[in-house]
Amino acid sequence: MDSLDFEFVSLSEAKAAAAQAATKIAVNGEAKKSEVEQDWVSKRQQQISFDLELQPETQQWLEDLPEEVRPVKLPTKFARVANKIARAWRRPAICDGVFEELLIDHRGTRQGFPEEVAMEISALAEYYRAVAYPKKSDVWTLR
Q1: Other residues' Cβ atoms within 10 Å of the Cβ of residue 6
Q2: Are the C-beta atoms of residues 105 and 112 closer than 8 Å to each other?
């Protein structure tokens, strides 16, 4: 069995090399972003005034939530996200998708929410699935 040769490099050198390889690839003389580094900012939905402040329906939804799951940081830091959850709240198929989109990074490159906001969203999702809109059993799942 042949042995593998390794080159010893520092962690900072390895990170720099990985970043350089991932950021740009030259194609036909033009610099193009690699698949690893997509320009997600340009693909985002444009924010409108509706997104920048809590809507009256969202404020009512927050007031109706039990105090133990009522988010505090989410509506103050991310009004758009709070509005989105509130709009989907009474539609379980849609709201489950909203929570999954917010809590799971399918792109692999998202920065994520600050920890306290992520914890609030997670607590809301648990409450939603366990108490507010639990999945109903049907004849096929009963034993």
Answers
A1: 6
A2: yes
Please state, in angstroms and rounded to a whole number, the distance separating the CA atoms of residues 118 and 73: 10
Close Cβ partners of 102 (under 8 Å, ≥ 6 residues apart)? 81, 85, 113, 121
Alpha helices in 24-140, H assignment, sequence order: 49-52, 56-64, 73-77, 79-88, 92-103, 115-127
Q: pLDDT of the chain along its 143 residues, tens only?
A: 566 565 666 666 666 666 665 554 444 445 454 444 555 455 555 555 567 899 999 999 999 999 999 999 999 999 999 999 999 999 998 999 999 999 988 777 778 899 999 999 999 999 999 999 997 655 555 54
Considering only CA atoms, which of 87, 98, 97 is closest in space to residue 56? 87
pTM reported for the whole predicted model: 0.62
Query: DSSP state, 83?
Result: H
79: nearest Cα among 107, 101, 56: 56
Select from 53, 47, 52, 72 the least CA-distant residue to 62. Answer: 72
